[in-house]
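Section 3.1: Structural characterization of target chains.
Under the original work plan, the team committed to producing a structural model for every single-chain target entering the pipeline before any wet-lab resources were allocated. The record below documents one such target. The sequence was received from the expression subgroup and is listed exactly as submitted; it comprises 436 residues.
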Amino acid sequence: MWANSSVFYQFYPLGMCGAPHENDGVTVPRIRKIEGWVPHLQRLGTDAVYFSPIFDSDSHGYDTRDYRVIDCRLGTNADFAALCDALHAADIRVVLDGVFNHVGRGFWAFRDVQEKKWDSPYKDWFHISFDGNSCYDDGFWYEGWEGHYELVRLNLQNPAVVEHLFACIRGWVEQFGIDGLRLDVAYLLDPDFVRRLRSFCDTLKPDFFLIGEMLHGDYNRLVGPGMLDSCTNYECYKGLYSSFNSMNLFEITHSLLRQFGPEEWTLYKGKHLLCFVDNHDVSRIASMLTEPRHLPLIYALLFGMPGIPCVYYGSEWGMTGAKQAGSDDVLRPALDAPEWNELTDWIAALARAHKGSRALTEGSFRSVVLTNRQVIFERAVEGERVLVAINADSAPYTAHFDAQAGCATDLITGAYHDFGGGSELAPYSAAFWRVQ
C-alpha cells in the first residue's frame, strides 16, 4: 500500500481558504488558492494531501447538504478538479473526508422529509420517529450525532443510502481522481457498512486507501483485511505531547510497545496507523508544549515511530492556536501563503529520512534506552537498522548501550556517529542513526 511509506499533509479548506462560516450561497473559487501551495508541499516532502470536508454544507463541512457538488464557498467541481490535477502532476495523492455517519439539516433528502413528512420517499434514510418532535419543531424526532441535532444521522442499513453514497464516491474518483478516503467518526460506523465500502472501493482504483477516525477502543475492530487500511492513532497523539510536558518519555514508549513491540500479544504489529501531533480538532502542538525547544523533538518522534506521519497546515512553521470552548475556528485559520523557517527545514529533513528508510516505514519497534528525559529505540527490517535517539533534557546525555555496531550515519544530518565510548546527545536533540 502506497500510504504506508508516505508523508501526509492535512488542509481544512473552508478555514484555510477564508470561506464565510455560514454558507452564503455565493460561488467563489477559493479552493484554487491551494494550487499555490504545491511547491511548498513538494519541498516539505508531502506524498498525500488529506482534505477535510469540501462538499456543499450548512456551515463547517461536516454538516453536508450534497455530496455531489463542491461547497460554493470553495468554488465549483471544475475548480477542485483543477487542484487535483495540479497535485497529481506533482506526484501528490488526494484523500477526501468521507462524512457518512451524518449529514446537515440542509441535506436535500432531509429537507424533503421536513416538507412531506410520512409521504417523503426518503424518510427511511434517517432514524426518524413521527411519534415525537425535534428541538427544531420539525414535527418528528430524529437521531443526531452524539446529541448534536444539527447533524442528522444517516441510516447506513438502508440499501438506498448506501447506493447513493457509493455513487458519489464513484463520481469523486471519476471527476477528481481521488486516491482514498478518511472516514469521519469511523468508530460509530456499522462494521458491515465498512466491509461493503472496502469491497466497493477495491473496484474503483488499485490501492484505494481507507482510513478511519478512531478515538478510543480496539483499532482492530475496523482495521484489517477486508476493512480499513488504517486509522488515526489518538492513543499516541496524547502520549506524544504528554510525555514531553511531564518529562516522562516512559508514557509514549509504553504506548508504542503496547501497539508495536516485539511481544506476540502486541496489538497492531504490521499495521500502519496515521500519527499526528495536531489536527483540525485539537490545539496546535506549539500551543500544547510547555517547553518550546521540545517542538523539533516531538516531530522527530513522530517521524521516527511506527506509523504514517501527518502534518497539519501551518504547524510546520510553528503556528499556535489553542482550542476554545464552543468554537474550533482558531484551529482552522485562513492563510494566504505558506511560511518557511528552521522548523520547516527540520520537518522536511525528517520527511526525507523517513521516506528514505525501509526500517522507519516498515520496521519493527524495540526499546533500547529509556529514561524520563531520554529515549532510544530501534526500528529494523532485514538489512537495515535505525536507532532513533532523543534527548529532551537541557543537559547533554551520554548513553551507554550495545549498539551491535561500531558506527552509524545520521539520516537527518548525514553526520557520522561512532558508538565507541558511549553515544553523546546534545541538549534538546534528536538523531536517526542508521547503523553500519
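The longest strand covers residues 374-381.
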